[in-house]
Structures are given as C-alpha cells and as structure tokens.
Write a structure and sequence with these properties.
With about 400 residues, this protein is mainly alpha-helical. The chain has 14 helices and 2 strands, in the order H-H-H-H-H-H-E-H-H-H-H-H-H-E-H-H. It has helices at about 25-55, 60-80, 90-120, 120-130, 130-140, 150-175, 190, 200, 205-230, 235-255, 270-295, 305-320, 325-360, 375-385, and strands spanning about 180, 325. A two-stranded antiparallel sheet has the order 1-2. Helix 3 (about 90-120) crosses helix 10 (about 235-255) and helix 4 (about 120-130) runs antiparallel to helix 12 (about 305-320). Keywords: Membrane, Transmembrane, Transmembrane helix. Its main location: membrane. Belongs to the drug/metabolite transporter (DMT) superfamily. Plant drug/metabolite exporter (P-DME) (TC 2.A.7.4) family. This is WAT1-related protein.
Length: about 400
C-alpha cells in the first residue's frame, strides 16, 4: 500500500538541481506504457480479489496478509533511497501513521473488499473512479479546497461531479436490457461458483453501502496524507510502517470477527497468489511507476488512463466470471468516464493556474512540464489503482 501509507511526492520543488531533468524521447512511449501497466495491475487485482473472496477468503485476512507483503516489497526501497533518513518515528509520528493506516487500510480497503464481495468487479471499479470526486467534495466541505463557480475550470469540475453522480445512479438503479456476450463467458466461474455463498456474494444494497463507505475512507485518508507528509516526510518508510500498522489492525479485527484460526492458514492456491500479487505489483511496482509518472507529467496524468481499467474490467469480469452486462451498466459507465474526464480537466487547469501564480509570486522562471509538488493530488488520483 502506498497510496497509498501513500506515495508522497516531495513538496520542496526541484531541490538543488536548479530545474527539471531533460525529457527524453523514450519517455513519450515509456510513460503511457507504464500507466497502462498500472491499470493492468489494478484490473487483475480486482478480479483476483473477487475470486479469492468468492472461494471463502475473509476480507480482513486478505487485508492483513496483503499489507504484510506490501511492507516487505517497499522496505528495500526505503533502505536504498532513504538509508540516511531517520527510521524510528516519534510518538506523535507513530500516531499519525496509525491513523493513516486506519483510514487507508481498515476503512478504505477493508470496506472496498466487503463491497466487492457483495457486488461484482465491474460495479466496484466504478466507485474506485469516483474517489477523486468524493475527495474533492470532502475537501470542499472541510474548507481545504474551494470550488470557483465563476471560472471555466470550476464549472467543468462541477459538471464532472454531477455527471459522475448521475452515472453512478444509472448503474445502481437502472438495469435495462441484458446484452449478449460477444465473447466466451464463465471461463473461471465453474471453479469458484460452488464455494460462493449467494446470500453473501450477491447483496447489492449492502455492497453499495460498503463501497460508498470505502470512497469516504479514501477521501479522508488522502487528506490525512498531507499532514503525514509534513510530520514524517520519508515516504518509503512511511509507506512501510503504514502497511505494518494496517496489517496488525486488520489481524486484530479479523480475529475479533471470526475466531476460527483455520481462516488464516494459506496454502499454495489462489488465495496465496492474490496476496503475493497485490503486495508486490500493486504496492511495490505500481508505487515506483506512479511516482515517476506524476513527477514527470503531473498529478492528473495517471487518471487519464482510468477508463482503460473500467472498460477492460467489464470485459474480463464478463468473460472470466460470467457477470451479466446490462444496458444501464454501459450507459452509467460511459457517464462516469465522461464526468471523470471533465472533472480532471477542470482540476488540471486549476493546478496549472496555481503553479503559474506561485512561480510569478516567487519570481522563478518556467522550467518545463516536470512536477515536484502535490502529494495530496497524487493520492487523490491514485485512489483505486494501487489500493483496490
């Protein structure tokens, strides 16, 4: 888990280098390819998590082991990049790390797993794409962010919010005609259908409430990231410690919910593969790729590829798990995608204006398209990718 205790981008400018690094031609290919790879990690993770939950794995068991593997994946980066930084946080810093883990792991990720178990992969991914919207709404409510209705960026953000909410309502309330699958379906369903409990795995109302709670958990988590980055700026150590704290909290809660210790035994099967995959790829590898992309292209860049995950998840969820596709799901998904891009366009313009104003105020010259600011913005955009 980065986004996770969160991937934090330094807010101290370009440091002593005096400017941004040169943009190499290979980056025009490598950057979008890396973001496509991150989306692929997210798609596979959601599907694997759904399969593991369908075969009887408890959400907090998956959560505890995943974050333990995630800590093991990130700690080498901490030793390599932050070997000179302090490794033992103070009591107040431990408090913020614990709070960070509570919101980011227990509430955001834990409620998402419960929502995923009660619904399906396609439905849950839509809520992951609503995380930037919910985060902005919470920030506005807390007066940490302003929504300027008089400017075009502000109007586009408001339009994006309304369209996303409308798209989510369409998916939730309207099914419409069931569409025929143009590809072979139910490829993996025979292996997991018998283990799934219909009363648990097909409760859309409870699942929707869990997913909404997950969005709120992510929103407050990203706001906490800003404070954590100030009191404990070592991002790799913060991520490692947050993963460890989250794993411990998940273990305690899991034991309190279910006293059966056999649920914690892992074998060489799908459950173990899901745990290892999520910890290594969705925490370790994605952590590096997302940080690099945001540093070179800005906090909005990764979210430009979110629609790939939504469309691909619809196809793979149908082909592998046999999830039915309804007309309402397609229409609602398209509305969410359009609303998200409208919101990101407005947010991107606001960031450009803010950066230009800051540079003019400080008397610095323009140095290119590199970004060294905005840990909160990075976290808001990564929401579903790395922690799903």
């Amino acid at each position: 888990m980065a986004h996770e205790g969160g991937a934090k981008v330094s807010s101290g400018g370009s440091g002593g280098s005096g400017g941004c690094k040169a943009v190499f031609p290979a980056e025009s290919v490598m950057l979008p390819a890396s973001m496509v790879l991150v989306q692929l990690f997210s798609i596979v993770l959601v599907l694997l998590s759904k399969l593991a939950l369908n075969t009887g794995m408890q959400p907090f068991v998956l959560l505890a082991y995943r974050n333990l593997i995630g800590a093991a994946a990130v700690v080498p980066l901490a030793f390599f990049f932050e070997r000179k930084a302090k490794k033992l946080p103070k009591l107040s810093e431990c408090g913020w790390i614990t709070i960070n883990a509570t919101f980011g792991v227990i509430l955001a990720m834990g409620l998402y797993y419960y929502g995923l178990r009660g619904t399906n992969a396609t439905y849950s991914v839509i809520f992951l794409n609503l995380i930037p919207i919910v985060t902005s709404l919470v920030a506005i409510a807390l007066r940490a962010e302003k929504l300027a209705f008089t400017s075009w960026p502000g109007k586009m953000k408001l339009l994006g919010i309304l369209v996303c909410v409308g798209g989510t309502m369409v998916v939730t309330l309207y099914k419409g005609k069931m569409l025929r699958h143009p590809w072979p379906s139910h490829l993996l369903r025979p292996h997991t259908h018998a283990a799934a409990t219909p009363a648990v795995h097909h409760n859309m109302v409870a699942g929707t409430l869990f997913l909404c709670g997950s969005c709120l958990g992510y929103a407050f988590w990203f706001i906490i990231q800003v404070r954590l980055a100030k009191v404990f700026p070592s991002r790799y150590w913060a991520t490692t410690l947050t993963c460890l704290s989250g794993s411990l909290q998940a273990f305690v809660i899991g034991i309190l919910i279910d006293h059966d210790m056999s649920a914690w035994r892992l074998k060489w099967d799908l459950k173990l593969f899901t745990v290892i995959y999520s910890g290594v790829f969705n925490t370790g590898v994605a952590f590096i790729l997302m940080s690099w992309a945001v540093k070179r292209r800005g906090p909005i860049y990764p979210s430009m590829f979110n629609s790939l995950a939504m469309v691909a998840t619809v196809i793979m969820d149908s082909a592998l798990l046999g999830t039915s596709i309804f007309l309402g799901s397609i229409l609602g998904t398209l509305l969410v995608i359009m609303g998200l891009y409208a919101f990101l366009w407005g947010k991107g313009k606001e960031l450009q204006e803010a950066m230009a104003a800051a540079k003019n105020a400080s008397g610095k010259e323009e140095t290119g398209d590199c970004y060294e600011h905005g840990p909160q913005e990075l976290e808001q955009r990564r929401g579903g990718d790395e922690l799903a």
